[in-house]
Amino acid sequence: MTTRGQLRVLEPGWRDQLRGAVTTVEGLDAAIALTPEERRGAERAEAAGFPLQVTPYYLSLIDGDDPACPIRRQVVPHADEATETAGDLVDPLGEEAHEVAPSLVRRYPDRALLVSTDQCAIYCRFCTRSRVVGAGAGPAPLRSLEPAFVWLEAHPEIKDVILSGGDPFTMATSRLVRLVSRLRAIEHVEVIRLATRVPVSLPMRIDDELVGALRGLHPLWVMTHFNHPRELSDEAAAGVARLVDAGFPVMNQTVLLRGVNDDASTLTALFRGLIRWRVKPYYLLQMDPVRGTGHLRTPLSRGVEIMEALQGRLSGIALPKLIVDTPGGMGKVPIGPDYVVDRAPGRTRLRTHRGVEVDYLDP
Fold this sequence. Notes:
The chain has helices at about 15-20, 25-30, 35-45, 55-60, 70-75, 145-155, 175-185, 200, 210-215, 235-245, 265-275, 300-310; strands at about 100, 105-110, 110-115, 160-165, 190-195, 220-225, 250-255, 280-285, 320-325, 330-335, 340-345, 345-350, 355-360.
């Protein structure tokens, strides 16, 4: 999408993509001509901060001549990452406080989250887990996760396990299959969710080998993060189709990001594109207050305004819930426009998306 550098996908294999990922200031500047603010941010990230990494594929989606490019803003560090704002937290979801076994987080009665690796294909600058992701440890050996499996086996109330990281789809297929099989062997775990941004950042990873190896371990749900219509490429469409055709329900959690997707027209195009692919827009997430990300966060009121603009104008299957994952790990809260105008005994007055007020009478 740019005249600078070679940004087309030169390495078709997913392993080649990871080996060829841009991880240095010089490599990034050669591709997209960094602004002074981006260069300072990238130098800081390279030295000691949350690391920089962009696959050649995802780099090819960037407009290298536009510093406001919505893809660029998601993965290119910025000097503003050194600025802390009110409410910033290192661990915004309180995962360390809710860790019940090494790498296992429980914040809800019936589900738990297993951190399986610290590696991703790309490092999104708004990452909730930036305190640990990209640290270099790589996939956790199965033996190191055994205390987590033992804890899960002792808690039959856990019906749902989210396999996260990092990104579990960056593991070798054999390793991922062993991990999922170990979870599947726990009788009361009914559903396993695979939390991944690989369909967005490394779609060639969703190949026949991966899909064929995992489909025997259903029910498996794939939870992914498309944030902008520009990410709906032909390569991503092919990867998602392999998943859906093999029986994997795919749900999308869009993060609301300032200067990326914080307007109704952008999200309309994204959500309509996703349902064409048979992907359900599940959540529109208010961005977590991760330290150094204030420049990417929107006010809560902006998400409410956008949802009001979308209500009644998009099909219900294309409308996600607007969610705030409350600081400290207290759980997700749905928010949205208030359509109740007035309440009286036996009567509620509602405002429709047309602006018409209608009375609903209780039986």
